[in-house]
Amino acid sequence: MIKIYAPASIGNINVGFDILGAAIYPIDKSLLGDCITIKKSKQFTLKTIGQFSHELPTDITENIVWKCWLYFCKKIKKDISVSIILEKNMPIGSGLGSSACSVVATLVGLNNFLNHPINDNELLILMGKLESLISGTIHYDNVAPCYLGGIQLIINEKKYITQKIPHCNDWFWIIAWPGININTMESRNLLPKKYTKKICIDHSRHIASFIHASHTMQYDLAAQVMKDVIAEPYRTILMPQFNNIKQKIMNIGAMSFGISGSGPSIFAICDNINIAIKIEKKINEEYIVNKNGFVKICKIDNIGTKIIG
Ligand SMILES: Nc1ncnc2c1ncn2[C@@H]1O[C@H](COP(=O)(O)OP(=O)(O)O)[C@@H](O)[C@H]1O
Ligand SMILES: N[C@@H](CCOP(=O)(O)O)C(=O)O
Fold first, then answer.
1. What is this structure's pTM?
2. How far apart are the CA of 198 and the centre of ligand 1, in A?
3. CATH number of the domain to which 177 belongs
4. Are 211 and 232 found together in one domain?
5. pLDDT digits (tens, 9 = 90+) for 42-66
6. 144: closest CA among 32, 286, 6?
7. What is the count of structural domains for the chain?
């Protein structure tokens, strides 16, 4: 038997659409990720439990965990019989890498359970493929940080898929899921097919400055250039409260604020716990729309997916 935990992630982190992502953990040590348990079995079975299991497709073959098993068997050219339990702790369509948590936990679990028949790079490529079945296009900015931890820069050039970049350990990442769902594919379809030269130059300047500032520990500069000119202007149509709460959170003292992944979750960054607590309170008062929503003060999870049983 093996049990795997795969953490939530913030795709894009404002400045790196599809090419930057961060794994996170709540400082209150609550669970913010999916768990997968795998045991030997005479035939494949999948059982779903957990707070958000009711949001999963009723047809087992529509569950991304089933597809992970299918693709993994094809990859190793063996039909393996296992029983899998998915503990769905992540809300679906949340913008916190919910599908990535299930994909990474399942593929890491299967690979460990069968004594590593495929290597890390092949596993990552498989993760990207499974994610694309859900979002319509391959993007590694959830699966890479979820799997490997930290803030991951997606390179995706021949054998180089992703590499970790330095981050500020003093930063608090306050995340909030309002309690409603936005489908990643729907959110991606909102984006324009083309951008102006000015936008391209501004975006290149922001991302290059962010990577440079991260490597030279100029963290105020890093926060200052964490701007989203690619997705935020088009996605906030699905998030009517976004601009209002963004202004209020920046006024409290956030260093940066943006959409987590494809939304509706949001994130704010600050380097002071007292400001983080004020931000958490304000978001709770003005952005959470029902009892399912939540706000959590987090830090970067530098490990990523881990074996917990
Ligand atoms: N195990 C799973 N976890 C999350 N989503 C799943 C899973 N299996 C299938 N899905 C489907 O994937 C879609 C949600 O993916 P997505 O919109 O990317 O959510 P998120 O932004 O939280 O990753 C839904 O249509 C959901 O039914
Ligand atoms: N780069 C992707 C990230 C999607 O993150 P998710 O948590 O919403 O699945 C995008 O912005 O579409």
1. 0.97
2. 34
3. 3.30.70.890
4. yes
5. 999 999 999 999 999 999 999 999 9
6. 6
7. 2
